[in-house]
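Handout for the seminar on molecular recognition.
Each group receives one record of this type.
Step one: identify the two inputs.
Step two: read the structure output and locate the region that could contact S-adenosylmethionine.
Step three: write two sentences on what you found, then compare them with the reference statements printed after the record.
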Amino acid sequence: MGSPRTRALRNSAALSVPRRATPHVVSRNEPTLLVRDTVLLGDSIDLLNSLPEASVDLIFADPPYNLQLEGVLNRPDQSLVDAVDDDWDKFASFADYDRFTRDWMSAAQRVMKPNATLWVIGSYHNIFRVGSIMQDLGFWLLNDIVWRKANPMPNFRGRRFTNAHETMIWASKSANAKNYTFHYDALKAGNEDTQVRSDWYLPLCTGGERLKDANGDKVHPTQKPEALLARILLSSTNPGDVVLDPFFGSGTTGAVAKRLGRHYIGIERDPVYAKAARARIAAVDPLDDEALAIAPSKRSEPRIPFNALIEAGLILPGAELVDSKRRFRAKVKADGSLVLGPATGSIHKIGALAQGLPACNGWTFWHVEKRDELIVIDTLRQDIRASMPAD
Ligand SMILES: C[S@@+](CC[C@H](N)C(=O)[O-])C[C@H]1O[C@@H](n2cnc3c(N)ncnc32)[C@H](O)[C@@H]1O
């Protein structure tokens, strides 16, 4: 079944991708070693159950959405809307979909390393069911990310709002998994020193990135944009990590993982999609190590107390620190504390007090004045770090 085009594809050799000699087909319960950088052909639940326990660093899942489409959908000019009506997206009931979700998700949980995380993307059709099952299974929700589509499909019937986003739930394996990977500082540095928000504005996958067959038709109806996967992998994996995608489709996760120096394992039960994914990934060139190096996290940098700036002669006792607008002035004491009016305390405490806030990062709030110029004291701290011998 599936859309006429998808059916035609399966029945023809129209797809312009090279054939692989023997596809890796794994049958139910056949134990599988963790073969990295491979596309496994078969059912995701069976295959996940056959993989070694605690062996992958991240799972990205783009499961069937259970779109429940009824009838055909036409545009105002009567052309047919290319909706997802494939068999793999059909379930007899919500209960059936929930059972399927519970099964693949608990199988996924087993293969995750203790500090691995799971990303699941979905739409309003399924994401609420997915989220509640995730919590029932003990996953700990870290964020829900809204992917705002720059170029969404209009609502042709004009009976609802334009459906312009999808939701991704990001979760750790359990509530006590604290050391999951998240490159907070690197992401912030790439975002003009502003925290990256949970709403991502990205276009749908179109143009040259969209896989087409020899007839110019889409190879896969729901190919995700590479930029979306790149953000996910850059934020929550390290180079060399193993990324598993149990609903691999056209292999977007594998293509991005390879480009970013991560290993991938894809599971896909449709041989046409699996073949297209393999060919797509084979054409990807990985970036070099320099391009992939992750900006060091502030948390991993050596701790420098404010006192060290005085000891290094960068700030003298008795000097005044000011905020960027020169509204507040605090005096530096010889022991490294600050004085503001009757109050004495750390750079953070006095910064917070000056602004009437519960907390403040004194390193970025206070400045020294040098020949009318303001220098944020965090710069002086960085100078000390830079002068320290490497480990
Ligand atoms: C939403 S699509 C994923 C698209 C993919 N993210 C991409 O960018 O191309 C879901 C895919 O899961 C596959 N699939 C559905 N049920 C499956 C199952 N039980 N085992 C393995 N693959 C399955 C479908 O064939 C389909 O290609």
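Reference statements: Residues 1-28 have pLDDT under 50 and may be disordered. The radius of gyration is 26 Å.
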